[in-house]
Amino acid sequence: MTNHSPGNASPPTTGINPDGFMFFNATEARTLDAMTARIMPSEPDGLGAREAGVVTYLDHAVAGYFRDLQSIYRVGLQRLDSYCLAKAGAVFAGLSVSRQDEILRELDAGIDVSAAGADTEGLEGDSVEPILTRFFAIVREHTIQGMFCDPIYGGNRDFVGWKLIGFPGAQWEYTEEQMRPGFDATTIPILSLADLQRSRVFCHD
Length: 205
Fold this sequence. Notes:
- This protein is mostly helical.
- The protein folds into two domains: about 20-160, no CATH class; about 165-205, no CATH class.
- The protein has eight helices and no strands.
- It has helices at about 25-40, 50, 55-65, 70-90, 95-110, 130-150, 160-165, 195-205.
């Protein structure tokens, strides 16, 4: 999470379209959207997890190369909403952003949330306790990946993450001038792996 705090404002309506998701259902997608939006907020510059399409990255990743984490995602999302209902009277996505931040800070601190209750059948023994603390750590790591990965993996939409840190993306090479200390890398046109693949095809035509 960052220190950007919009006070007690309610979370904005999400722009995700779970109908096209491969793994998460609509409820799970809304919860993840709310989580990732607090881990990498949009304010104050409009460059956050929502703009980068991080939930799409998570869905593709968990449906594919992170499929071994499907159980902890499914159970973790269920337990998070159970915990929020017991403690704050609403599911995570329905809480104010300030309350969401409080919940995530508690998970980050590793507090005992084992009383939230959920069916953990099918999870490995060492991945259950404390399930929510571990779940949050995984989501945070994957949010960062989705924010700054190459767009070919489903995240970093419109190069939002790379623009945020001034990274020019996938380049074939850098000029001598561009390699000098102090050079402004934001002046280099941003390229993705797809751009490089297209340019390679054109070069061979």
